[in-house]
Amino acid sequence: MKKIEAIVRQEKYIDLQEALNEIDVHGITVYQVMGCGHQKGYTNIVRGNKVEINMLPKVKFEIVVSTEEWVKKTVDVIQKVAYTGNVGDGKIFIYDLDDVIRIRTGEHGIDAI
């Protein structure tokens, strides 16, 4: 089992959610997050003062999949939909999961997904 975390631009949220639904990826958790990387932020004028905004709004998707095949399908969709070619498109992280437990039934592993 693998956990995929994808941090993408806010404007890609709806497109990515729809694309994941189309390939039958369910069990998605989404967060609004702030972060910075190579994009570095931007400068804004607030009450006449120049302010550096380093942390930019992003959307974080967390998805748990059962097999390497699902990892590849899911990551391919995320890369295709989130891509703009510009700095700040985001990152994808993939982790191994030891176990998953469904609280309601006590099921473990793939049965809990």
Q: Walk across the major sheet and give the strand order.
A: 2-5-1-6
Query: What is the overall pLDDT average?
Result: 92
Unreliable segments (pLDDT under 50, ≥5 consecutive)?
A: none
Secondary-structure content class: alpha+beta
Could you tell me how far the N terminus lies from the C terminus, measured between alpha carbons in angstroms?
9 Å
Q: Count every helix, treating DSSP H or I runs of 4 or more residues as helices.
A: 2
Largest sheet: 4 strands, antiparallel
Order of helices and strands: EHEEEEHE
**Radius of gyration from the alpha-carbon trace, in angstroms:** 17 Å
Into which percent range does the helicity of residues fall? 10-25%
Envelope shape = elongated
Beta-strand share of residues: 35-45%
Oligomer: single chain
Number of β-strand runs? 6
Plain-language structure description:
- It is a single chain.
- The chain has helices spanning 13-22, 68-82, and strands at 2-9, 28-35, 42-46, 49-53, 56-65, 90-96.
- With 113 residues, it is an alpha+beta fold.
- The strands form two sheets. Strands 2-5-1-6 form a four-stranded antiparallel β-sheet, covered by helices on one side.
- Helix 1 (13-22) runs antiparallel to helix 2.
- The longest helix has 15 residues, at 68-82.
- The mean pLDDT is 92.
Short key terms for the protein model shown above:
113 residues; alpha+beta; four-stranded antiparallel sheet
